[in-house]
């Protein structure tokens, strides 16, 4: 787990604000859930034989002996909240959330045991058009962040639960013929979660999978048509994608459409956004049958990609616009009052007041990276300001009223 320090938070805020703006443009509403849920929620939704439940959850008993878990993902929490507050049955909901998640796993580049996600969930809409909308949302976010060329969309369809069960039987039968050549992890998954073997990175297992049954051959007709319609919308919208028959996603509740945005800029851990359809989850958690689809993206991974690509605007790290100081201690209170006036009369202006010693003020101000510096030389009522603008390296005198007018013009 790690701290996010003051020199890092501006980039986090930039990403979070961009996400909020993009999702607002599509009519999605924010929901905020607790970070602690009953453990059974995740066992029922994620699956008891998944790595998350078996190895990675932070679970503990509270003082009443009830088993609680720090949320390892947000979809189950969102379903629980929607069902608890009567938001899902016979309704269409477009929701998003952000916040910390927790998994006990080996830390690696861009991945922590407390990590942060943005999740987007849509309920009550069964057609492939809402699947396409979620993908269009993510594509719009990449455009806004300036990273479209660095990510690739991968698609697959898992089909209906029945079709997937038939495929699972065929896959297990095939892999059992090659059991001794499978890697240890895949041997274990063959009994518990065989579809996850399709995502194996072991080279020998990958060779065995080349001749394995293909999921697309087992798709039901409805899933096949939905997938074709989804691809048609993406083609019309100019969204490039690859159909990846080995893409399955790691959680038990997915069906039909699944997708991932991947990058080759971060090494082996290249997934930056992933999601899909989970039509059976609401019923599985005790609600009425409700179609649903969503995706999640890791904030740490996205920030790492933004910084690797060097596409974070320079102004993002700028925490204030004007550095204001007094020439001598006798007028320090005038500086404080002038700063209050500027903040009040120039909306959006960020002013940092110099509150330390009065030696080498100009040099100290420049060290902060201030885009503009103003030095009060005498009484505010009748004195002048010496303004140093870094971009022009010039200095000129202004009265307080002139400074307000100038800043208003700049920040209007």
Characterization of the model:
With 412 residues, this protein is α+β, with helices and mostly antiparallel strands. It is built from 14 helices and 16 strands. It has helices at 9-25, 39-46, 51-56, 75-84, 128-145, 161-176, 184-192, 203-209, 221-237, 281-284, 299-309, 332-345, 361-367, 400-411, and strands at 29-30, 36-38, 58-61, 67-70, 93-102, 114-123, 152-157, 241-243, 255-262, 271-277, 292-298, 322-326, 351-353, 372-376, 385-389, 394-398. The strands form 3 sheets. It has an 8-stranded mixed sheet. The chain has a 5-stranded mixed sheet with strand order 13-12-14-15-16, sandwiched between helices. A 3-stranded antiparallel sheet has the order 2-4-3. α5 packs parallel to α9 (221-237) and α12 packs parallel to α14. The longest helix is centred in the N-terminal third of the chain and has 18 residues, at 128-145. It is elongated and about 85 Å long.
